[in-house]
């Protein structure tokens, strides 16, 4: 989309805290659930996640643990890469 800021979240990911700007870390965390400064514990407050968790935590836990995905289907679909299939498998 024109005017929308996006970042290459795979570039220098192993050094994200030192090399990335705060804006890039926030964007990558919010949109892709990576390089989040917070240590998300997906089992904490799970029974009340809809009210208690930030959007970044919901996205992270949905993608990594398969929990708290309610209402995120469209967002996850738009930001998740299709799985790569190994034709030799």
UniProtKB/TrEMBL annotation:
It comes from the Eukaryota. This is Uncharacterized protein.
């Amino acid at each position: 989309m024109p005017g929308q800021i996006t970042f290459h979240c795979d570039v220098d990911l192993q050094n994200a805290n030192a090399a990335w700007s705060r804006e890039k870390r926030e964007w990558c965390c919010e949109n892709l659930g990576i390089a989040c400064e917070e240590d998300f514990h997906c089992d904490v407050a799970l029974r009340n996640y809809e009210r208690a968790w930030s959007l970044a935590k919901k996205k992270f836990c949905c993608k990594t643990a398969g929990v708290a995905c309610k209402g995120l289907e469209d967002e996850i679909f738009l930001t998740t890469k299709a799985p790569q299939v190994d034709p030799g498998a």
